[in-house]
Structure formats: structure tokens, C-alpha cells
């Protein structure tokens, strides 16, 4: 799989990310960093603990990373959750609302991670321990 195909699968534009990050080496560097980022795990844990403040922080982190890496699907679902968890909006939603949006985010996150792992796996540089 090429980077062009990866970004196509992610619903994104390779040309846009190349313009932003300038080289394939930098794109690959940031893809590796994304695989190692623990914001999703922290978001999941904070939602399970009904910790709205930290849930907002982690959802916002995911949103920012995905906007920078041009992952539009995951950026959209993380943005939706971020806005639900935002201090001035939080009283309009229930924990069930947050969890429903988190389910969508989880699907988008897993698809994104799996596509990236598939990309690195084709090079034979990704293993199940997460080492690259």
C-alpha cells in the first residue's frame, strides 16, 4: 500500500498532507507517532470514570491530531464528542449521548489505526507489540 492509497482509504487527500508536512518521511514519522499516542485509551478510561473534564481534553487532543494529519472521518467524530463535552454544552447531553458518539469515534479510530498498521505491515515494519 502506498501513502496515496492509505490517505484515500482514510477519506483524505495525499496531496494536502504532503503540502502540510512537505515530505513522505515526515508523514511517516507522524503516522508512527499517531500509532503510539495514548489519547484514545485515556479518553475511553475517562469516559468510563464519568470524568467529563479529562474526556474533553483527550477528545480535543484526538481532534487536533486528526486535523493536523488530515484524517477527516476521525476528526469529525472526535470534534462532535469534543463539542458535546465542552463546558458550556455539557449540560445539554447525557452520558448516553457521550457514549453513543464515542462508539462512532471508536469505529473511526479503529479503521484509522488498522489502515495505518496495514500500511506499515506491507513494509514488514509493524509488529503486534506495536513496534515500528
Describe the model:
- The chain has 132 residues and is mainly α.
- The chain contains seven helices and no strands.
- It starts with a helix and ends in a 10-residue tail after the last helix.
- The mean pLDDT is 91.
Number of strands: 0
Taking all Cα atoms into account, the compactness measure Rg is: 15 Å
The 3D shape can be described as elongated
- Element-level helix/strand string: HHHHHHH
Structural class, from helix and strand content?
A: mainly alpha
Number of helical segments? 7
Q: How can the largest sheet be summarized? A: none
State which percent range the strand residues make up. Answer: under 5%
Roughly how much helix do the residues carry, as a percent range?
over 70%
**Uncertain spans, ≥5 residues at pLDDT below 50?**
none
Termini separation (Å)? 16 Å
Name the average pLDDT. Answer: 91
Describe, in short, the structure shown:
With 132 residues, the protein is mainly α. The chain contains seven helices and no strands.
Q: Strands, helices and their partners?
A:
Blueprint: H1 3-9, H2 14-21, H3 24-36, H4 39-48, H5 52-69, H6 72-85, H7 95-122
Helix pairs in contact: 4-5, 5-6, 6-7
Amino acid at each position: 500500500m502506498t501513502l496515496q492509497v492509505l490517505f484515500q482509504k482514510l477519506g483524505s487527500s495525499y496531496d494536502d498532507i504532503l503540502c502540510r508536512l512537505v515530505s513522505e518521511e515526515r508523514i511517516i514519522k507522524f503516522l508512527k507517532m499517531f500509532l503510539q499516542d495514548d489519547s484514545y485509551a485515556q479518553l475511553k478510561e475517562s469516559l468510563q470514570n464519568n470524568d467529563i473534564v479529562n474526556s474533553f481534553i483527550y477528545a480535543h487532543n484526538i481532534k487536533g491530531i486528526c486535523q493536523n494529519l488530515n484524517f477527516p472521518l476521525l476528526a469529525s467524530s472526535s470534534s462532535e464528542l469534543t463539542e458535546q463535552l465542552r463546558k458550556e454544552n455539557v449540560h445539554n447531553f447525557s452520558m448516553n449521548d457521550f457514549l453513543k458518539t464515542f462508539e462512532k469515534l471508536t469505529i473511526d479510530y479503529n479503521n484509522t489505526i488498522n489502515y495505518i498498521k496495514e500500511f506499515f505491515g506491507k513494509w514488514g515494519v509493524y509488529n503486534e507489540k506495536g513496534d515500528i
